[in-house]
Design goal:
This protein is of the alpha/beta class. The protein has a single domain, classed as TIM Barrel, CATH 3.20.20. It is built from 14 helices and eleven strands. Strand 3, helix 5 and strand 4 form a beta-alpha-beta unit. The two termini are 41 Å apart. It binds iron/sulfur cluster. Iron/sulfur cluster binds next to loops.
């Protein structure tokens, strides 16, 4: 996010969002719209059951919003800051480029992002070129799009976690294709992302070495979560709070270790991320929203069938309404009693979670957190902050040499959730032992 955007656009909204949260004023547009464009996905990931649910019932995707319906919603919503595409697998929608064209026309976002399971390199390449052509026509050159293939292991380990034989080889081809396009159009950013779960905890160094050896500019992790969106409530995939804290310390050390090489803009983003990590750990320890969550206000999530959620963790459990029931008038939907009730549930602190997409915005909207961001940026980064991790030599791993050996099971601690949006409890569960 640019400083100018924060000072003149995001910052001033925080007061209004706080008033909306208390029910004093009518909602204004969110900063972020996440849109799960399709129910379809080819993967059977161990950390997300969207693909398994779809493969058991492919008719689900017939309920995807059509382009005409999407245009009506986007026209009614108007301008936002961040258009965050989600799925299913977004590139399983043949008209994905047209959806982005409609977003450029009506939402005029300043950032666009899409993840991908990287299973269809050819189509991903073709669609990315089409998307970039629309963006060049309709948006200023300063608006970037990031496409983030998932990498949850190296070689067979990736295929195992993603539940798709041959996915790693396809991932390599997708990365090559995207980097080729990036060389032609710098508007495209190629990120890689790992979901850290109990399954790949011991493989993180190997994944990171591989990513850096491929010359990828940005690599992000997120912790495996149990979400309504993922149909994985109760699955013991989330590492314990203690491991979560250790992981965030490690991420912060890496940021501190490399910060001197970064431009001012990247330093600012990294300062927000450092504060987010502290907030996430605080939430898990205190088991409550440590400052107000603006789910349903600063961020909204539209599911493939047009149901509007406050966030992907609560999903339809606290639905704000369904655009098809409101003649696609999303502004009226957001002012409805149902939407107010869902926002009241969140404002009353009945849920708590460290969802990155939401809490990164919550940090930006909370003065206490922003003071910490300033302190981190102006003092801790200059001082060197936490000790930097030693740079490890880069090493390319031959994917064919990596075999997944599931040597039975073992009892390990994991976070398990009984009810969506509540803080999970720690429990010993049987997990595959991967060597
Ligand atoms: S579940 Fe998490 S992200 Fe969603 S509204 Fe509650 S605290 Fe915010």
């Amino acid at each position: 996010m640019k400083l100018r955007d924060y000072l003149f656009d995001v910052g001033p909204r925080s007061l209004y969002y706080a008033a909306t949260r208390r029910g004093w004023v009518q909602p204004i547009n969110p900063l972020t719209l996440t849109f799960s464009v399709t129910a379809a996905c080819q993967s059977r990931c161990k950390t997300c059951n969207i693909g398994s649910v779809y493969l058991a019932n492919p008719k689900l995707a017939q309920n995807n919003l059509s382009l005409e319906e999407i245009e009506k919603v986007f026209r009614s919503l108007g301008e936002i800051y961040f258009f965050n595409i989600s799925g299913g697998e977004p590139f399983m929608r043949p008209d994905l480029a047209e959806i982005v064209r409609l977003a450029c026309t009506h939402l005029k976002p300043k950032l666009i992002h899409s993840p991908t399971n990287a299973i269809s390199p050819k189509f991903i390449g073709k669609t990315t070129r089409k998307i970039l052509a629309y963006m060049d026509d309709l948006l200023p050159p300063s608006v970037p799009i990031s496409i983030k293939p998932s990498i949850d292991g190296v070689g067979k380990m990736h295929d195992y976690v993603r539940g798709y034989e041959g996915n790693f080889k396809l991932l390599e081809r997708t990365i090559d294709t995207l980097l080729e396009i990036r060389a032609e159009n710098p508007r495209l950013h190629v990120d890689l992302g790992t979901v850290i779960s109990n399954l790949n905890l011991r493989h993180l160094d190997e994944i990171e070495d591989w990513v850096h050896a491929r010359g990828i500019e940005s690599y992000r992790h997120e912790i495996a979560e149990q979400r309504a969106e993922f149909h994985n409530l109760g699955d013991p995939i989330t590492p314990t709070a203690e491991i979560y804290e250790q992981l965030t310390e490690r991420f912060k050390n890496k940021i501190f270790g490399n910060i001197h090489k970064k431009a001012f803009l990247t330093r600012t983003t990294e300062a927000v991320r450092v504060v987010y990590y502290d907030v996430a750990v605080e939430i898990l320890k205190k088991k409550k929203q440590v400052t107000p969550c603006y789910g349903g206000i600063s961020n909204i999530h539209m599911n493939y069938d047009g149901e509007i959620w406050p966030c992907c963790v609560l999903g339809g459990d606290q639905s704000l309404g369904h655009v098809r029931d409101w003649d696609y008038d999303i502004q009226a939907l957001l002012r409805s009693k149902q939407a107010k009730d869902a926002k009241r549930y969140i404002a009353d602190g009945k849920c708590a979670c460290p969802l990155a997409n939401q809490w990164l915005n919550n940090v930006l909207l909370t003065p206490r957190h922003m003071l910490k961001v300033l302190y981190t940026l102006l003092y801790r980064f200059r001082k060197g902050g936490a000790p930097a991790e030693e740079e490890r030599p880069l090493r390319v791993v031959d994917p064919d040499a990596v075999e997944v050996n599931i040597a039975g099971t073992e009892r390990r601690k994991a976070l398990v959730m009984d009810k969506l949006g509540t803080i999970p409890r720690e429990e010993e569960v049987e997990l595959p032992r991967i060597e």
